[in-house]
Write a structure and sequence with these properties.
single chain; 136 residues; alpha+beta; Ribosomal Protein L30, Chain: A; 4-stranded antiparallel beta sheet; 3-stranded antiparallel beta sheet; 4 helices; 7 strands; elongated; binds zinc ion
Amino acid sequence: MNSDAYQDVDACPQCGRQHTVKIYQVVIHKTLRWSESINCPKCGLQSEADGRGFPPPEIREHLLRTGGAWCVQVTEYPSKVALLRVLRENLKLSLNEVKRISDNLPGMVFLGTYGEATWLHELIGQVGAIGSVDRV
Ligand SMILES: [Zn+2]
């Protein structure tokens, strides 16, 4: 299980004061999950949100800003078809995107947060692909 907790500063959606937001991205049983918790010291707003898969854009922004961007590089794969199928299904890629990745193999197949990159790295490992997760 890979767990990442990040803290960032954002304006309170209720009173506008800058406050700390805590964000987690975690992989449980091969499923990517995220959660966000807000606790405003001025107006007392408390808010929790969570879900499966890729987080909403504004939460992803926090993760990328505080945790950096990471990529998955694939160097070897026993079956290109199997590798592309895993990428397509889990990243919900269009055929054009799949073709673009296919044309660039071996090489970078994904760019995102650390939690997402380690999640995908684990998935492609199941079809025998070998690669690395690197900070961009
Ligand atoms: Zn507030």
